[in-house]
């Protein structure tokens, strides 16, 4: 009987994973942001290539290029929370990045997914998702400048990025409500995004 229960649970988790969800402690089903990003890198490659082309043409450095991608996601995509159910399908409150680009809107986890999918097209970029209660943001592997908000993951410093907008906040700055969330007793969960394409 125990083997049957274990097999049922394994298949249940596989089923949810195949649809971009994962099961957290307490049997809570949530969007699997790292998995969604991993599946979306290729779809947003044209956006990454366009940004890179502008960067090369204008002689921008990598920090300026990342800043441009951040600014685009923060300001060009309206902040709006996706419905949990749309057209009879559960969304987990997050749209796939390509859908968000087409629709022109998304919430914090959706916009983080968009930005991470774009940045993951550049092989030198290492990114982690940062989940706090009721909010989602990301961090990029980079030495923090003076005053930058950052986290440590596996002994390395990752500069925080707040893709949600709607204001433009450069990498290293987070919203006034975000820092208390990061410092709260509940803490935050770091979700490493998969290997970047080579």
Write a brief structural summary.
The protein has 198 residues and is of the alpha+beta class. The chain has helices at 2-18, 33-40, 45-58, 62-76, 97-103, 108-119, 178-183, and strands spanning 21-24, 28-31, 78-79, 85-86, 89-90, 105-106, 127-132, 135-141, 150-153, 156-161, 189-192. The mean pLDDT is 89.
Describe the structure.
The chain is α+β, with helices and mostly antiparallel strands. The chain has one domain: Roll (C8orf32 fold). Helices cover 40% and strands 22% of the residues. The chain contains seven helices and eleven strands. The protein has helices spanning 2-18, 33-40, 45-58, 62-76, 97-103, 108-119, 178-183, and strands at 21-24, 28-31, 78-79, 85-86, 89-90, 105-106, 127-132, 135-141, 150-153, 156-161, 189-192. The strands form four sheets. Strands 9-10-8-7-11 form a five-stranded antiparallel sheet. A two-stranded antiparallel ribbon has the order 1-2. Strands 3-6 form a two-stranded parallel ribbon. The radius of gyration is 17 Å and the shape is globular. The chain starts with a helix and ends in a 6-residue tail after the last strand.
